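Late entry, evening session. Most of the bench is empty. Finally got around to the prediction I had been postponing all week. Sequence below, unchanged from the version circulated by S.P.
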Amino acid sequence: MSSSYISKRAVIMGKIFDEVVIYGPSKIGRDTFIDRWVQVGYPTRERLLKTIRCNVLDLDSVSEGSIIGERCIIRSSSIIYDRVEIGDDVEIGHGVLIRSNSIVGSRCKVGSFTQLDGEVHLGEQVIIQSMVYLPHLTEVGDGTFIGPNVVVTNDKYPIGRLEGVKIGKNVVIGANSTILAGVEIGDEAVIAAGSVVTHNIPSSIVVKGVPAKPYISREEYELKKNRV
């Protein structure tokens, strides 16, 4: 017998494993698979506090639901807050957190234990590997690759004014890089592994180091990659 909780307001057209929780008017597209211990439509802090103050712990009633497209895979232990939109053919790893108002474009892949920790917008065909941290106001363009353990920040002087990072299209960000608040990274740029990006990066350039500085062009990078 299934031990899942599925809201009466939810529309489920995919396949749901046991011990899944789906709150509010969430919509799960055709041929989408939701694995064990996933929660969809979890309410924001404000709505959660409202239920606590009213002494009525009914998370379903305050959830505004989320939308998950067709042919997606949401792996075990992931939590998707309400007001999230996920496109078609998206794959989500284990233990991923996606907070309210985030948008994940079609054909994205989000690696295990990654956090979209606030309103984060991903374009289409974005690849994010494991244990990446993207905070509130981060924007990522189509076709960008983000390696494991990358950290993006949104506050230059904690705790202060939040400034989102904007990452262009077809960008490559190597493992263990850190991107400081307010930075804009141009289309086709490459950030070498372990770099700390403190200033805007123009399009089609490779940077590396701490702080990151220009190294070679994207064209030279592609030539080197093809010779390997």
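Two things to note before I forget:
The chain has a mean pLDDT of 95.
The CA atoms of residues 206 and 219 lie 9 Å apart.
Will write this up properly tomorrow.
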